[in-house]
Amino acid sequence: MSETLTIVGDIAERERLELEQLWQLPAVVPQHEQPPAPERQETYAHSLRVISKLGALAAANLLQTPEGVAARKELQEEFESSVAEMIKTDVEFRGVLEINREDTYAIKDGKVLAYDGKTPVVDMIATGVEASAKEALKDKRMCTQANRDAADLRNAHAVDAMEPGMTRIAISMDPKEAMQRDGVDFWEGFGYREGLAFIQWYTKVDADTLVTGTYSIDHTDLEAFKRVWAKAGGEIPAGLSTDQWLDCAITTQCGVEQARELVKTIRNQYYRQQHLPTERYAINDFMALNQQAINQAFNELYMPMSIAHDTGRKNATIHAFVEGMLANPTALKDGTAAKLRKIYNHD
Questions:
Q1: Do 148 and 200 form a contact (C-beta atoms < 8 A)?
Q2: How much is the average pLDDT of 145-163?
Q3: Do 44 and 26 meet the contact criterion of CB atoms below 8 Å apart?
Q4: Which backbone phi and psi does 234 adopt, to 5 degrees?
Q5: 52 partner at 20 to 30 Å CA-CA among 74, 86, 177, 240?
Q6: Strand 100-108 and strand 250-253: pairing?
Q7: DSSP strand pairing (250-253 vs 209-218)
Q8: Which residues make Cβ contacts (< 8 Å) with residue 170, sequence separation at least 6?
């Protein structure tokens, strides 16, 4: 593994490229071949809101307040998540790294709350469902995403309804039918990766606490996975679109440790059935080994960018970054070029 660690040694530079992608339009099929895809902006817009909020707090010297600490934590969570996804889906690392991400959420009045500790997760997802439904009216290809968002909402309601001590295990499969229909590049532009799925598990520890896990599974084959899922006690009906596989969850009474081991067993059984290596490195451990570089990238890029986004003030690194982005303004999202020019021209 030492050779792999060396390849990603300059993670700050790679994250600079990732940050550039945050501001750029996703690649789409040429316009003369099919209509341009509508942008999927919920995550992008949310990230910019957090960046702007953090910048305003930093400019007012309020980063040490509870609100400032919470905003910084939320943005760093998003940053580290994007780094993990970038590395895991890179062709060099996909065969040796796996995502085993776990989080803990508070529950209030029977509803799981988002990172802010206030907003019910079901409400956030419902907003996304409404947005994707509108997109689907403009472009029928986006019916795939609308269906997946609707399945996410049903899953969130099912998690809210669980009794303490129960676990729900679901599979978010890559959209194989849509990729075959519209092309792999189109859907990878929305964050999916061909052959990469995620087993999602939720354990309600008590009435106030939910522990969740997102474990990656690579080289997916639908019929092969169905067989493994059936052995674990689940059932995926023949002909059911992968957009709805999240509904075919396994529910069982068990705690966090048992849930974790059950999911790992399902994944390893799939790999053995497909004659794939089961010895892989968790991206969590890989990230921990590189935490210093990740923190450096966050502090040198995201923190200064949040201040620049809110106030226009920037350091030499952000000035050079913005200058590079403005070299190709036609590739920027609507309104972004004007914002970047404001930052660039600010004294």
A1: no
A2: 96
A3: no
A4: -100, 170
A5: 86
A6: unpaired
A7: unpaired
A8: 155, 199, 200, 201, 245, 246, 247, 248, 249, 250
What CA–CA distance (Å, rounded) separates 231 from 215? 18
- Does this model's pTM top 0.85? no
Query: Which string of DSSP letters, residue by residue, matches 69-93?
Result: HHHHHHHHHHHHHHHHHHHHTSTTT
Q: Residues with Cβ < 8 Å from 340, sequence gap 6 or more?
A: 23, 322, 325, 326, 332
Judged by DSSP in three states, 12 sits in helix
Which single residue is written with the structure tokens 């934590």? 73
Which 8-state DSSP code applies to residue 299? I
End-to-end CA distance of the chain: 46
Distance CA 4, CA 312 (A): 38
Q: What number of CA atoms fall less than 13 Å from residue 36's CA on the CB side?
A: 7
Angle at 149 between CA 148 and CA 150, to 5 degrees: 90
How far apart CA 343 and CA 320 sit, in angstroms, is 11
How high is the pLDDT of residue 120?
Answer: 93
Per-residue pLDDT reduced to its tens digit, 83-116: 877 777 676 676 778 888 899 999 999 999 988 8
**The tokens of 314 are what?**
């920037």
Q: How many residues does the chain have?
A: 347
The CA distance from 70 to 54, in Å, is 9
Q: What's the rounded Cα separation, in Å, for the pair 16 and 318?
A: 10
Give, as one character, the DSSP assignment of residue 244.
G
Task: Report the alpha-carbon distance of residue 176 to residue 219 in Å, rounded.
Answer: 12
pLDDT grade, residue 333 (50/70/90)?
Answer: low
Q: 200-236, pLDDT tens digit by residue?
A: 999 999 999 999 999 999 899 999 999 999 999 999 9
The whole-angstrom separation of Cα 12 and Cα 165 is 41
Helix (H) or strand (E) segment spanning residue 104 = strand 100-108
| DSSP count for the chain of H helices, then E strands | 15, 8
Mean pLDDT of the chain: 80
